[in-house]
Design brief:
Elements (H helix, E strand, L loop, with lengths): L2 H20 L30 H5 L26 H14 L2 H13 L6 H13 L3 H13 L7 H13 L3 H12 L10 H13 L3 H10 L9 H13 L3 H13 L6 H14 L2 H13 L6 H13 L3 H13 L6 H13 L3 H13 L6 H13 L3 H13 L6 H13 L3 H13 L6 H13 L3 H13 L6 H13 L3 H13 L6 H13 L3 H11 L10 H13 L3 H13 L6 H13 L8 H13 L3 H13 L6 H11 L2 H16 L1
Helix pairs in contact: 1-3, 3-4, 3-5, 5-6, 5-7, 6-7, 7-8, 7-9, 8-9, 9-10, 9-11, 10-11, 11-12, 11-13, 12-13, 13-14, 13-15, 15-16, 15-17, 16-17, 17-18, 17-19, 18-19, 19-20, 19-21, 21-22, 21-23, 22-23, 23-24, 23-25, 24-25, 25-26, 25-27, 26-27, 27-28, 27-29, 28-29, 29-30, 29-31, 32-33, ...
C-alpha cells in the first residue's frame, strides 16, 4: 500500500474518533453526516443505564452509523483491509458511549464485508455491557463470537464475561456459565489463575466454602499456581464463615509455596480476629506482617482501632491513632468515626466531641454518622444543651443533615420530653427532603408514651398508616410496649395479632412487653405460654435477662419461689447471667414470702459460686458486687475464689513495684 493511502486511512480513523468524542459538528464536511429527524433517535444517542434491552433494540433504525466514503481507500495489506483500524476505533468509541445499537450495525457491516474480527474488540464490548448492567447481552455476544463472527475465543474473553456476571451479583448464573463453557467438548478454553480467582470468589459469596477449597486444591492439577489474590479471597471466605484457624493456616501455606502475602492479605485476617475480640492474636499478626516486609496501611490501623473500641480499650485506640500518624499513615473519616463511636458507647460523648474538634483541626470533615452518634450520646448522658450546640455547629459548618442525623436529634428531644420541638424538627426534616424512617416515628411514639399521652402516640401510628409508611418490627414493638405499660392489654393484643397477620416476627422487646402485660393483668399462665414460644423463634427473639426478670417477678408475687428458681436455673443454662434486678426480685421474695424470712446472703453466695464454676466470671463478679452493696458479705471461700479469678499476680506485682518506685524516687 502506498504511504499516502496508509496515512489517509489513519487520518480518517482519527477523524471518526474525534467526531464521536466531540459530536457530529466536528466531522469533516466532505463526509456525509447522518442527520436524523426529530421523531427518531440519533445513532449517536447515549442510552442511560436504565434503558431496557427492548429499547436498545429500537435505537438507530435509520441510516448506517458510518459513511461509505471513509472506507474507500487503497488495496488490501496482508490479512487486514483498508478501514480495519477505523472499524476498531468505532467499536471502542461506541462501546465507550454505550451505544449498543450502533455497535451492532458496525459488527453487521464487518460481517458483510468479511472483515477479520479480533477478540480484543469483543472484550471492549463486554466491558461496556458490564457498565450498562446487561450481563445477559454479554453472554449472548460471547456465544455469537464463534458461530456468527468466526472469532476464536480464548480465556481472556471468557474471564471478561465471567467478571461482568459476578459484578452484577449474579453468582449462581456465573457458576452455570463457567460449568457450561469449560465443560463443553467443543471448547478450547483452559481456565487460568484469574478464572479460578473469579470462581473461588463466587463460591465464597454463595457460602460454598468447602467447594471453594476444593477448587483451590484443583488449581495445581490444572497447572495453575495460586497467587496472592487467590489466597486472600479464600481467606476472606473462611473468615466470614468463622473458620479463622483454617484461614491463618493458609497464611503459613502460601509462604511455604513461595507466594508472599500483601497488606490486604493480613488485613483480612486481622479484621476477622478483631471481630472475634482476640486482640492478642491480632497483635501477633501485625508483628508477622512487619517481619514479612508488609507495612501496615490505613485499613490495618482502622481495623485494629475498631477492634480496640469493640473491647472498650479506648486509651489504646487513641495511642494507636498517634502511632498511625507517626508512621505517616493518614487517618481518615473511618478512623476518627470509629473512635468517636467507641467513646459514645462508653458514655464518653464529651470526649468524642473533643476528638471531633481534633479531627477538624487536622483538616478532616466529620460525616453525618459521626454527628448522629455524638448527638445521640450527648442526649443519653443528659447533656441536651451540648447536643443542641453540636447540631448548630454542624449546620454552620455546612454539613447537611440526613435522615440519620435528624432521627438522632428527634430521638434525643423525645427522651427529654420535648415533643413539640421534636415535631418541629420532623416538619423541617420533611421540608428538606429527608424522609422519616421507622426509627424516627418510633422515637416520637415512645416519647408520647413516656409522658403518658398514649392517645397522641396512637395518632402518630395512624399517620404512618395513612401515609402508607411500611412499619417494621421495631414500630410494632414500641406500640405494643407502650400500650402494655399503659395498661391497655386489649389494644396491645389487637396490635400483636395485626403484626402476626402481616407476616412480621416479634422480637424480644415485643415478646417481653406482651408477657409483662399479661402478667400484670394476672394472666401469668398465658404469659408463660408466650415465654415458652420464644425458644422456638429466631435468635433475635430469644428471651434475655429482662424477659426472665418479668417471669421471676410474676412467679414470686404468686409465692411460687421454687418455680421461679427453676426458671433461674434454666436461664443460667441458656448462658444468660442474672443482674441487679434479678437479685432484688429474689431478695424481696425471700424476705416477704418465706417463713421464717431470709436475708438472701446464702442464696446470692451460692449463685456466685455456681457462676464461677461455669467460668462466667463477669456475672459472678456482679453478684458479689450486689452482695457488698446490700451489706451481705460473701463467705471466705467465695472471697478466695474472687481474688483468684479477678486478680492477676503479675499485674498486682507490677502495680506494687510501681508504687514503691514512686515513693522512693
Amino acid at each position: 500500500m502506498p504511504k499516502c493511502s496508509l496515512f489517509h486511512t489513519e487520518l480518517l480513523s482519527k477523524s471518526i474518533k474525534k467526531s464521536l468524542k466531540l459530536g457530529l459538528s466536528s466531522v469533516p464536511r466532505k463526509f456525509p453526516t447522518p442527520i436524523q429527524s426529530h421523531s427518531h433517535f440519533s445513532v449517536f444517542t447515549i442510552p442511560s443505564n436504565n434503558t431496557s434491552e427492548t429499547e436498545l433494540d429500537n435505537i438507530g433504525e435509520t441510516e448506517p452509523p458510518i459513511s461509505d466514503e471513509i472506507f474507500k481507500s487503497s488495496h488490501k495489506l496482508g490479512s487486514y483491509k483498508p478501514g480495519d483500524s477505523t472499524f476498531y476505533s468505532l467499536i471502542a468509541n461506541y462501546a465507550d458511549l454505550g451505544d449498543f445499537r450502533s455497535l451492532e450495525k458496525v459488527l453487521d457491516r464487518m460481517k458483510r464485508e468479511n472483515r477479520r474480527f479480533m477478540e480484543r474488540c469483543f472484550i471492549v464490548i463486554f466491558r461496556a455491557y458490564g457498565k450498562a448492567h446487561l450481563p445477559e447481552k454479554a453472554v449472548q455476544l460471547f456465544d455469537r463470537m464463534v458461530y456468527e463472527f468466526h472469532c476464536r475465543r480464548t480465556v481472556k474473553s471468557f474471564n471478561s464475561v465471567l467478571n461482568v456476571i459476578i459484578q452484577e451479583g449474579r453468582f449462581s448464573h456465573a457458576l452455570e456459565f463457567y460449568s457450561r463453557v469449560t465443560g463443553s467438548r467443543d471448547s478450547n478454553i483452559m481456565p487460568n489463575v484469574l478464572t479460578f480467582n473469579l470462581v473461588i470468589k463466587t463460591l465464597c459469596k454463595l457460602g460454598m466454602i468447602d467447594r471453594a477449597v476444593e477448587m483451590f486444591r484443583e488449581m495445581p492439577l490444572r497447572k495453575c499456581t495460586p497467587d496472592v489474590f487467590t489466597y486472600s479471597t479464600l481467606m476472606d471466605g473462611l473468615c466470614r464463615e468463622i473458620r479463622i484457624d483454617e484461614a491463618v493456616s493458609l497464611l503459613d501455606e502460601m509462604q511455604i509455596e513461595g507466594c508472599f502475602p500483601s497488606a490486604a492479605t493480613f488485613n483480612v485476617l486481622i479484621n476477622a480476629v478483631c471481630k472475634k475480640g482476640d486482640l492478642a492474636r491480632a497483635a501477633k499478626l501485625v508483628d508477622n506482617m512487619f517481619l514479612k516486609g508488609c507495612v501496615p496501611d490505613e485499613v490495618t490501623y482502622n481495623t485494629l482501632i475498631h477492634g480496640l473500641c469493640l473491647k472498650g480499650k479506648l486509651e489504646k485506640a487513641v495511642s494507636l491513632l498517634d502511632r498511625m500518624v507517626s508512621s505517616k499513615c493518614v487517618p481518615n473519616d473511618i478512623t476518627y468515626g470509629t473512635i468517636i463511636h467507641g467513646l459514645v458507647k462508653q458514655g464518653r460523648a464529651v470526649d468524642g466531641a473533643r476528638v471531633l474538634i481534633s479531627m477538624e483541626e487536622r483538616g478532616h470533615r466529620a460525616n453525618e454518622y459521626a454527628y448522629s452518634a455524638l448527638i445521640s450520646g450527648l442526649f443519653r448522658e443528659g447533656k441536651m444543651e451540648e447536643a443542641m450546640k453540636l447540631w448548630k455547629e454542624m449546620v454552620e459548618r455546612g454539613c447537611k443533615p440526613n435522615t440519620v442525623v435528624y432521627s438522632a436529634l428527634i430521638d434525643g428531644l423525645c427522651r427529654e420530653g420535648k415533643l413539640d420541638k421534636a415535631k418541629e424538627v420532623l416538619s423541617e426534616m420533611v421540608k428538606e427532603g429527608c424522609m422519616p424512617n421507622s426509627f424516627t416515628y418510633s422515637s416520637i411514639m415512645k416519647g408520647f408514651f413516656q409522658i403518658g399521652d398514649s392517645h397522641k402516640a396512637i395518632l402518630v401510628w395512624k399517620d404512618m398508616e395513612n401515609d402508607n409508611f411500611m412499619c417494621n418490627e421495631v414500630c410494632y414493638s414500641v406500640l405494643i410496649h407502650g400500650l402494655c405499660e399503659d395498661g391497655k392489654l386489649r389494644e396491645a393484643l389487637m396490635v400483636w395479632k395485626q403484626m402476626l397477620g402481616k407476616g412480621f416476627k416479634p422480637d424480644v422487646v415485643a415478646y417481653s412487653s406482651m408477657i409483662h402485660g399479661l402478667c400484670n393483668a394476672g394472666l401469668v399462665e398465658q404469659g408463660l405460654k408466650l415465654f415458652n414460644e420464644m425458644f422456638c423463634q429466631e435468635p433475635e427473639s430469644q428471651p434475655d435477662v429482662i424477659t426472665y426478670n418479668i417471669i421471676f417477678n410474676a412467679l414470686c408475687k404468686q409465692s411460687s419461689i421454687s418455680r421461679a428458681i427453676d426458671f433461674l436455673n434454666s436461664m443460667m443454662d441458656q448462658g444468660c447471667d442474672p443482674d441487679l434486678v434479678t437479685c432484688n426480685i429474689f431478695l424481696r421474695a425471700l424476705r416477704e414470702k418465706v417463713h421464717p424470712p431470709q436475708d438472701g446472703r446464702e442464696f446470692l453466695d451460692e449463685l456466685a459460686i455456681r457462676l464461677f464454676k461455669r467460668h462466667r466470671i463477669l456475672g459472678a463478679s456482679k453478684i458479689v458486687e450486689v452482695m457488698l452493696q446490700k451489706f451481705l458479705p460473701p463467705k471466705a471461700s467465695t472471697w478466695a475464689r474472687v481474688v483468684q479469678e479477678l486478680c492477676k499476680p503479675k499485674k498486682i506485682g507490677a502495680a506494687i513495684d510501681k508504687c514503691w518506685s514512686s515513693l522512693y524516687c
